[in-house]
Design goal:
single chain, BirA Bifunctional Protein, domain 2, SH3 type barrels, eight-stranded mixed beta sheet, 6 helices, about 30% helix, about 30% strand
Length: about 300
Amino acid sequence: MSESTAVMADLNAAAERIWQDSEASCPGLSLDVVRKIDSTNTALMQRGRQGQVSPTLMVAAEQHAGRGRQGRQWQSALGDCLTFSLALPMQLDGIPGGGSALSLAVGLSLAQALDQGLNQAALDAGLPTVNAAAIGLKWPNDLHLQGLKLGGILIEASPSATLPPTHRWVVIGVGLNVRQGPEGASALWTHHPACGSGLLQPSLGAVWSWLAPALIRDVQRFETQGFAPVHAAYASRDVLRGQNVGLWTTPGQSPHQGHAPSQVGQALGVSDTGALLVHTDSGRQSWTSGEVSVRLQTP
């Protein structure tokens, strides 16, 4: 069996498990498993613009034009990376923090589900489990593992002619390094302590089946309760809190293009609406995800 056939069979089997786990909480959920696509987010955003707004999960075995925050690319090689998107109508405008806070709630949901799923798999395999929260969160949309980037989140939203004016079509994209990540990144198989540096090797389908049902439930809970109830849980995984950081606030300038930061300061955590809090020479400031890029400052 070719690797492509094996990956597709694994993801299709996971889709059936996810549908069974999510049918009660998300009636009418559609699941799409595709062999190769430019971007699951792009495809689902287009559906929303066309008026197709039923809740949908789409996963791709391989993604060749994935997108990250601020237009950066997210490449997905066959079998290495789990790339999927959840799309559904949401009423975000009345929620403190809106889409910016949603990104933090999504990251927390993914981190918790990953740690729980990996620990259960390790227990089933007779391997040691990990009590601590191994996966950290870097504001506003990254998952970290052992100091390196493990995954990213991209949230997009738009109106739709078939939705009420108070609702938007929201697409939540996730890219996660499972088998191997790009240079300078981490991956579950080699970096998560529950995997024993490769002794435990969960498939893409297994990881997807841990994440998707929890994500659906947590996004629905966010829509009714906001970010405040999970603020403390997020803080326990916040990799920036208490660290010196650089802030890039000038339009057109960013750290990955080599520009110097506009300001520096000490990260104080996040507010109960999901804003980044930083103590700078100008005092305490708060930032939402569309206003700033932030990086740890190397001593």
